[in-house]
Amino acid sequence: MAAAVRLVLLVLLLLGPGVWGQAEPPRDSLREELVITPLPSGDVAATFQFRTRWDSELQREGVSHYRLFPKALGQLISKYSLRELHLSLTQGFWRTRYWGTPFLQAPSGAELWAWFQDSVTDVDESWKELSNVLSGIFCASLNFIDSTNTVTPTASFKPLGLANGTDHSFLRYAVLPREVVCTENLTPWKKLLPCSSKAGLSVLLKADRLFHTSYHSQAVHIRPVCRNARCTSVSWELRQTLSVVFDAFITGQGKKDWSLFRMFSRTLTEPCPLASESRVYVDITSSGQDNETLEVYPPPLTTYQDVILGTRKTYAVYDLLDAAVVSTSRSLNVQLKWKRPPENGYIHYQPAQDRMQPHLLEMLIQLPANSITKVSIQFERALLKWTEYTPDPNHGFYVSPSVLSALVPSVVAAKPGDWEESPLFNSLFPVSDGSSYFVRLYTEPLLVSLPTPDFSMPYNVVCLTCTVVAVCYGSFYNLLTRTFQIEEPRKGGLVKRLANLIRRARGVPPL
């Protein structure tokens, strides 16, 4: 009995006093946010941000247990003595002229820059090893980063977090413009999230929807921040951001209205259980400026105002931790509708479907006199099937001409009664009065050069295949149909006959 009591006391001592008292608060936290912004061009931008903060000094403390902070990145900071790490993988280019200023700008391809601690002796070697490790974590071609594409800026890329000095010899920067971002890069990025893609805002991160956009950028930012106002201790902050731009006309089937389900094919049902904050922000600034032309549904319970990038913004806030937001319909599907058509609402756009229907764009505009109007359309060249090419594919492919229908003011007024009796074409396009006349113009067909395959290659393949088949089949058929016979050797030849004649003449027995 005494031994059992000693064993219980030993177990209690190992567990510590925290078992009987109040449990210690967690030293890490997670905040997830989604900002939806209607862009001036009519597109819709969605920006995700997942902020994980850990009150721990990874490089001083022997950390072995990770709760919210990814262990792979935590060990990376400790092993290579990183002060800051910034990585972005971007597909497309942010068009500031049409979309405005983004929250976070990133170049096309892969961008990596890092600050090392002053204790690092060989920065170049650590930089090379770091890029190789990140290449494996994010399934990217970062292992191609070497001295030929690495620079050390001295004016740009200052530390974004807590910095004791700015010795740029500990900074390295590299860009891989040809890096293609795809699903294999998104999957490891989502696995770094505490809830992965199982709950919270991350359930909207569906690959087939995110990559069917005009712009896609995912990034990872790690930096040290002050834990308190006096900055007596340091915490580590991880920000995982993802920005996409949806074409509202294509997503909304020709309409500018949008919703979470139209963009992501999913709705929000619950927050991440590990998150201390989970919110959706919808930019409704233009709603108040355009005489309440925008309507957000469901109506937000709260709004938020702040100065973002030098402009005062108003956001509708949907807090997923608030039971009233999700309890009504058990899911949150934020929708934005136009109360009345905007100024360019006579515009009619019908998106194309591959091999089913073409694009259709109609605009009703009023042009001032002596003016020049330019209409530009962005497009991408696609590869056709080999059966869809014309007999002369190098000539190019024709795009149908545009049609311009105009009501031109008339210099001389015509009498309406004379239209039916006119021998010309006035009666074909009647107008209400004689102050204007109708004109329909056509542009030239557009000749577009598309990527053309090497059509001689199929011919070479056919010739080679037929030759191989003929040789193999002929040999095999010859072996199956040929009959073999054994020929017995003859008794004697010409030489033997001559020898026998000579032997007979000499009186010698023949051979």
Automatic annotation (TrEMBL):
It comes from the Eukaryota. Keywords: Signal. Coiled coil: none annotated. Residues 1-21 form the signal peptide. This is GPI transamidase component PIG-T isoform X2. It comes from Odocoileus virginianus (White-tailed deer).
